[in-house]
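tool_call: predict_structure(chain=1)
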Amino acid sequence: MPPLDLATLESALSWARQGHDVWLCTVLATFGSSPRPPGALLAATRDGQHVGSLSGGCVEDDFLTRLASGEFDAAPRLVSYGANGEQGLQLPCGGVLEVLVERFPAGEASTTLLAAMRDILRGAPPRLREVALDDGATRLLDDDGLGPRVERTHDHVRLRLAPTHRLIIAGISPVARFCAEFARALDFEVIVCDPREEACRTFDIEGVQVVQRLPSSLIPEASHDGTAVVALTHDPRIDDLAMIEAVRTPAFYIGVMGSHRTSEARAERLRRSGGLDEAQIDRLHMPIGLDLGSKTPAEIALAVMADILRVQRGRQP
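tool_result:
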C-alpha cells in the first residue's frame, strides 16, 4: 500500500478523470496534540467518497456532511477545528486543526494539476505549490523539497510537494529491523535489500518490501529526491558499496553505522578504493544518527530516524 498522501492524490485524480468535482483538504497548522501533521491530505467527492485523513477520524464526518450540503462550493476556504474553532467541534485529543479546503472542478485543468502533484509524490522533482487564498489560483514553483511542508503569508499558502518518503535499508541487521518498523510508523515507503537468502526470508514486517539483491545494485534505480539510504550492517562489503552508489543519486540523506574510528577508516577507504571526492564524503552521515547516547538496536534505530527527520525538515543539528 502506498503512503497515505500518495494514495489520496491517486484517488483524487481517478475521480477527476471520471468527471467528478473533487475537494482537496490540506492540514495547514496544528496546535496541541494532533495525529496528523501539516501537509496531510484528504480528498473527497460530494457523494461521500473519500480517502486520506485530517485528524484520524475526529473531523472527517463533519467535513463530509458540510460538503454534501454545498457549504464548500466556493472554496478555497480556511476551516478551524478544535478549541475556539469556528465549528466549536472539540477534538478528543485536545488539539486544534487549521485546514485549507480547495475545490477542483471536473475538467482538464484539474486533472492536469492533480496528475502533476501525483507524479511529484511518485518521484518527479519537488515543487512548491502556491495557492492564492482569494481565488484559489495555483502555480507550481521550483523547490528542493526540504523544509516545512506548509508556509503562510496573509494572502497565499505555499505547500511543499516532494517525492513520497522512501527509506532504503542496505543490509539486514537487528538495527535494520527496528529502523524499518519506525519508518513505517512515520509513513515512509521502506525497501530492505540484502543478498542473503536466509536473512531476507526471515525478515517479515508488514508493508516493508524485501529485495534479495546486493544493495549497491538497487540503490541507483530506486533512489529519488525523497529517498534516505542507510547502511546498518557493519559489513564493509555491503556498507561501503552502498555508500559509493548512494552519493551518485539525489537521495536527501545517506548514512552508515559505525563508531568515529570506524567512520574515519571508512572515509579513507572510500577515498582510496571508491574514488569518492571530499564533497561526496561530506554527504555521508557517519556516524549515523543523532547523538542520543544510543546503545541498543532500538535506540540506534530511533537515533537514525530522528536524524533523517531532522534533515528532511531542514533543521540544523
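agent: DSSP finds ten helices and 15 strands in the chain. Proceeding to next step.
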